[in-house]
Amino acid sequence: MPRSPRDNQDIRDARREELLSAAIRVFSERGLGPSKISDIAQAAGLSHGLLYRYFDSKDAIFTAIVERQLSRIDEDFAASDVPAFERLARLVEQCGARSVRPDDAWRVISQAMMTGVASDVVRQQISAHLGQVHARLTAWIAEAQRDGDVDAAATPAELAAALMCLVRGMTIRMPGMELPFAMPGAETILRLLRHPTPTPGAAVAPAHEASPAPSRRSPRSHAPRPRRT
Question: What is the CATH number of the domain that holds 142?
């Protein structure tokens, strides 16, 4: 029985994923710069001709890896009717779960960016996506501030940037090295965003009264000093 167009597309999609997985292994071991198309074809168990039916260059393969990783981030921002703070909590939990599972794809992308091997097109693509993520986080945090769930003392954009930097730091891994401490849990991270709760019985001074005015020194005497004889 001949395969349907849907079956053919499923086969193509599965083989494309196999090629990307093989490329990630090769790039992770050898680096993006020194790696060759022949290395990827060999790792995937395919001929050069069959590989070129899916990607016309090594840069096209790397770009596809980047686009796949960025699309997975977009999935974390799927529309939901739950309150904004719950969406933030779910996002932080998902990022925390990924941080304990080393991701060679992100390591390959980071190495390519830091060593200058990534193309300008990929750099601009990642930069634009970071801007989109920041805008989405800013909107969520602003909504959570209006709900009274997030401290309103800082701007939503600043809090979004701080959260992105914190999550980014959690994903950094040195090959072959385990961290000597446990990663912070989602609740600890979210506590940094929470509206501060005053200690019971403690008086909270207004911002303009929080610091006492500096005391003034008594003016020095201008009486002339006695001359030495």
Answer: 1.10.357.10
With respect to residue 3, please indicate whether it lies within any of the assigned structural domains.
Answer: no
DSSP 57: S
DSSP string, 192-226: TTBPPPPPTT-----GGGSSPPPPPPPPPP-PPPP
Distance from C-alpha of 160 to C-alpha of 135, rounded to nearest angstrom: 8
pLDDT tens, per residue, the chain with 229 residues: 677 877 677 788 899 999 999 999 999 999 999 999 999 999 999 888 889 999 999 999 999 999 999 998 898 888 788 999 999 999 988 887 776 666 789 889 989 999 999 999 999 999 999 999 999 999 999 999 999 999 999 999 999 999 998 887 776 655 566 777 777 777 888 888 886 655 455 444 443 344 444 444 444 444 555 555 4
Q: Is 167 a domain residue?
A: yes
Residue ranges making up the domain that contains 88: 9-173+183-195
Secondary structure (DSSP) of 111-169? HHHHTT-S-HHHHHHHHHHHHHHHHHHHHHHHHHHHTT-B-SSS-HHHHHHHHHHHHHH
Q: Is the pTM of this model over 0.85?
A: no
